[in-house]
Structures are given as C-alpha cells and as structure tokens.
Write a structure and sequence with these properties.
Radius of gyration: 11 Å
Order of helices and strands: EHEEEHHEEE
CATH architecture: Alpha-Beta Complex
Largest sheet: 4 strands, antiparallel
Strand content: over 45%
CATH superfamily: Monooxygenase component MmoB/DmpM
CATH topology: Phenol Hydroxylase P2 Protein
Number of strands: 7
Helix content: 10-25%
CATH class: Alpha Beta
Strand order of the largest sheet: 2-3-1-5
Amino acid sequence: MTALYVLDVPENAGVAEVAGRDPAVTVVRIGPYFEITAEGPIVIDRRATGCRHAVWYSSVAGLGRSRITQHDKDALRVEPA
C-alpha cells in the first residue's frame, strides 16, 4: 500500500482534495495530517492543486512504505516501496 502524509493546513488543502478525486485513493485526517493512501501509485497534478511552487515542494510531510518517483513542477508521483 502507498501512503503519503501532508500537513493539514489551508495551503495544502488542494493537494489532498486533488488526490481524493481519484477513486482508487483514500484521504483521511490523522491528527494534524492528511493521510493519502492507495493500493498502487498516487499521482497528483500540481496545476490542479492550485499550489504555488514553494508550497508544492514543501507539502510532503512523510511516506509510509512508499517512495517518491516524481516530484517536479508538473506532478507528485508516489509508488509502493
């Protein structure tokens, strides 16, 4: 399972919202974080989130049994480790 953690602050809300549009992805709040999980890869389009670059590149708070395979101006892709 792929797991991505993003701090639950207004600046990151777009990241969780866009991730949750994918029916294969689950987004829940755990403490002060959004936990974003899926059985396979999680792909989030930066432009769809509305995040500026500084927020985008600092949005990842942690991973669970996963690895980032893309994190650029276009997308964040997290895959199972």
